[in-house]
Specification:
The structure is a single chain. The chain has 2 domains: 117 residues, 3-Layer(aba) Sandwich (Rossmann fold), CATH 3.40.50.2300; 96 residues, Orthogonal Bundle (Arc Repressor Mutant, subunit A), CATH 1.10.10. The chain is built from 8 helices and 12 strands. The C terminus is likely disordered.
């Protein structure tokens, strides 16, 4: 038996299960498929997957009912596959405990990134503790302090929460939706402009010049990564294909109550 995570994909459209199976297999996952809700429950009981991807609309049992029954048996992470525009279904699924959702059609790279992110969160691995040091920047996750060139960097509560999550997953791509949910709450998971403005502010405070990504790299349409490679090129514009987030001076959109005094 392989040691890579086992993914169960349930969808009544064969082209979707084939696409997901190919995309995730190429990323090193083991994948099994089901063509409906009842088959998904039977296979989940038999093979005990590490994560389940469920289409919301299936002819026998819908994805939300399958998720409910799965959760009665054991705590398995679930990503819902939804049609574009099914906002009420997305909200219902998240309220009932889905770990994430992804709208069809989706990009294979985004799908694989979301699966990895959910598995990482559900594994119980807490963000890394200690000090993250790169260039002249030190991020002390235990003392909740950031210094640059030995000088304390003043961060608001929102800036700290965002940087803390990136630093706790340093060297890994963190999805836009994950950052928005962790910092502002699930109702803000699609408000990418919030994220662009706040990432821009943090970049400036960490020493990046206007228009430069610095150590916070952008993966267009996917998320952000705090680059801690000591042999990396000096911070500058994001590499080709990784378009830097907007570096704007405008006031950030009014955010929820996570904002507050400097950390």
């Amino acid at each position: 038996m392989g040691t890579q995570p086992l993914v169960l994909v349930a969808d009544d459209e064969p082209r979707i299960t084939k696409l997901v199976s190919i995309a995730l297999s190429e990323e090193g996952f083991r994948v099994i498929t089901a063509s409906g809700g009842a088959e998904a429950l039977a296979k989940a009981e038999e093979v005990r997957p590490d994560i389940v991807l469920l289409d919301i609309v299936m002819p026998d049992l819908d994805g939300i009912e399958v998720m409910r029954q799965l959760r009665e048996r054991r705590p398995v992470p679930v990503i819902l596959l939804t049609a574009k525009g099914s906002t009420s279904d997305k909200a219902k699924g998240l309220d009932l405990g889905a770990d994430d959702y992804i709208a069809k059609p989706f990009h294979p790279d985004e799908l694989a990134a979301r699966v990895r992110a959910v598995i990482r969160r559900s594994s119980g691995a807490a963000p890394g503790a200690g000090v993250i040091a790169v260039d002249d920047i030190e991020i002390d996750l235990e003392r909740r302090m950031v210094t640059r060139g030995g000088e304390l960097v003043q961060l608001s509560r929102t800036e700290w929460l965002l940087l803390q999550h990136l630093a706790g997953n340093a060297g890994k791509v963190v999805l836009h939706t994950e950052l928005l949910t962790k910092v502002w709450g699930p109702e803000y998971r699609d408000d990418l402009q919030y994220l662009r403005v706040w990432v821009s502010r943090i970049r400036r405070k960490l020493g990046a010049k206007p228009g430069e990504a610095g150590r916070i790299r952008t993966f267009q349409g996917i998320g952000y990564l705090l680059d801690i490679e000591t042999n990396a090129s000096p911070p500058g514009p994001a590499p080709a294909g990784h378009v830097a987030a907007l570096d704007v001076e405008e006031e950030a959109p009014k955010a929820p109550a996570t904002e507050g005094a400097a950390v």
